[in-house]
Specification:
heterodimer, A: mainly alpha, MetI-like fold, B: alpha/beta, globular
Chain lengths: 292, 248
């Protein structure tokens, strides 16, 4: 390479470097401006956080159980034992079971609705462009409205209890999974669909045999992720009277039954961990063995 | 005698003309090889016959029935009548062999139960018979993804036979197979042609194989027919021109 060519390369390179650097500075500026604008809108200030921090730890200390290491295994009458802390365990377990069932039902129903709608809202396989736009808008609405709003609505209409919560979570799950599923379909290879069409198969057959076997592993993992989310959602949704352990948690928080708050939260965390571990196993099993 | 008649068929894709004014008459029981280099329009012609794509103009008729204007149920009936096998097999990898073969009946006899993989006993026996003819009956419950390429293509042939076809369209059936499997697959296709008298139209990029198996060759170049006749009448010069190569 001769000298003049080398020089030209160096000039071009440094010019590119300079423009890239300018661009980076520009982006950082935009971030800084939007950060300060949004923090002034929400009255964000550091001192408030620092002031509030001790109060936060106060609350955590308050809800911690008063366990005595010497009495820990004593019966429920003795203060300081685990049984005393969890004197209401049977009730919690029943409510947790109810919460779990709410999540199972809502996830299953949401899964079915989402699967049906997702075929209509995937651009590459939708039977026509109108149904594509229509279903896409419907899914946006279903997941755009927070589930707590739907829950308030259904508690008002159907009364206090888990049914309202199940319907609310089902609606939100349909919207969320429908979008994810249709995006999975959009990435699917259409070769098998072409084969089914060449046999004279109809649209339903194409979806059933051309798409479902191919996308199933992805769909299952999205559905299991959604199930974990729904466990938490069905807890929170109890706050507005839609059943499950959340309703009880709301009660003990309001009545300042501090030790019961930590007892319930610990149970919820343990449940979520258990589900997280087992859902990974379930997914592996389904993907490895099941041909649907 | 029943025949497939194609008249001044044209297919344009926005800029390019893939099929440029083609007219052919193919009789029942013929085994026709379509040859030409890639991009000559071979696959497009197959897809036009099956109506997977719509022609720009011209007509395709089978037994005097116009194919290009078929709609709805009639179109599906036509598609199931002309079975198709593909270069990449286009099977459902994650399902077992038997279900793949049974999926060939979705066009002729659609039932909601079939979406739950429930097929009649008669159809299952039929599917197993076709698999047995192709020496694959022991693989019936194996997942398709675990089979070799040659086995997969024969599963695809069994699936095509489930359609009780009058025409078998084979789109590069052996180009992803090794020589030994190629021979097995071509022998099977030939057998279907001779024994069951089904019209076979086969895209092939290998001239040797086309000459060996077909009674009639049609040479395509830039969407036009440049040769139509018995393999023996294809001159060396014309063959070289067809493939743009000295030694194919």
């Amino acid at each position: 390479m001769n000298d003049s060519l080398l020089k030209r390369h160096i000039t071009i390179y440094s010019e590119q470097l300079r423009s890239r650097r300018l661009w980076n500075i520009f982006i950082i500026l935009i971030f800084a401006v939007s950060f300060f604008m949004s923090s002034s809108i929400i009255d964000f200030n550091l001192s408030q956080i620092i002031d509030g921090f001790p109060r936060l730890s106060d609350y955590i200390v308050k809800i911690l159980p008063n366990l005595d290491i010497n009495l820990i295994l004593e019966n429920s009458k003795t203060e300081g034992s685990i049984q005393y802390w969890y004197f209401n365990f049977k009730k919690y377990a029943a409510l947790l079971y109810e919460t779990f069932n709410m999540a199972v039902l809502a996830t299953l129903m949401g899964f079915i609705f989402a699967l049906i709608l997702s075929f209509l809202s995937a651009k590459n396989i939708t039977p026509n462009i109108y149904s594509y736009h229509l279903v896409k808008r419907i899914l946006e609405f279903l997941r755009g409205v927070p589930e707590i709003i739907f829950a308030i609505l259904f508690v008002w209409a159907l009364g206090v209890g888990p049914l309202a919560g199940i319907i609310a979570i089902t609606i939100h799950t349909t919207g969320a999974l429908g979008k994810l599923f249709s995006e999975v379909h959009e990435n699917a290879d259409l070769k098998t669909c072409e084969a089914i069409r060449s046999h004279g198969g109809n649209w339903v057959s194409e979806m059933r045999y051309g798409i479902i076997p191919k996308v199933l592993p992805n769909i299952i993992s999205y559905a299991l992720l959604r199930f974990e989310i729904n466990i938490r959602a069905s807890t929170v949704i109890g706050f507005v009277g839609a059943g499950g352990i959340g309703q009880e948690l709301y009660l003990v928080i309001n009545f300042n039954y501090y030790e019961e708050v930590s007892a319930i939260i610990l149970l919820i965390i343990l449940t979520v961990i258990t589900i997280d571990i087992s859902s990974g196993r379930i997914r592996q099993k389904i993907i490895g063995e099941m041909g649907v | 005698m029943a025949s497939l008649e194609i008249n001044s068929l044209v297919k344009k894709f926005s800029e390019t003309t893939a099929i440029n004014d083609i007219s052919i008459r193919i009789l029942d029981g013929e085994m026709v090889g379509i040859i030409g280099k890639s991009g000559a329009g071979k696959s497009t012609l197959m897809r036009l016959i099956n109506r997977l794509i719509e022609p720009t103009s011209g007509s395709i008729a089978y037994n005097g029935i116009e194919i290009t204007s078929l709609k709805g149920k009639n179109l599906k009936q036509w598609r199931s009548k002309c079975a198709m096998i593909f270069q990449q097999f286009n099977l459902i990898d994650r399902l077992d062999v038997l279900t793949n073969v049974l999926s060939g009946t979705l066009g002729i006899n659609f039932k909601l139960l079939k979406l739950l993989k429930i097929y009649s006993k008669k159809e299952k026996i039929e599917a197993l018979t076709y698999l047995n003819n192709l020496d694959l009956s022991d693989k019936a419950l194996q997942r398709v993804g675990t089979l070799s390429g040659g086995q997969q293509q024969r599963v695809a042939i069994a699936r095509a036979m489930m359609q009780n076809p009058s025409i078998l369209l084979a789109d590069e059936p052996i180009s992803s197979l090794d020589p030994k499997n190629s021979k097995v697959v071509m022998d099977d296709i030939k057998k279907i042609n001779k024994k069951d008298g089904i019209m076979v139209i086969c895209n092939l990029h290998s001239l040797e194989i086309a000459k060996e198996y077909c009674d009639r060759l049609i040479g395509l170049s830039d969407g036009k027919i440049v040769f139509d006749g018995h393999p023996s009448s294809l001159t060396k010069e014309l063959a070289e021109q067809l493939y743009d190569l000295e030694n194919e």
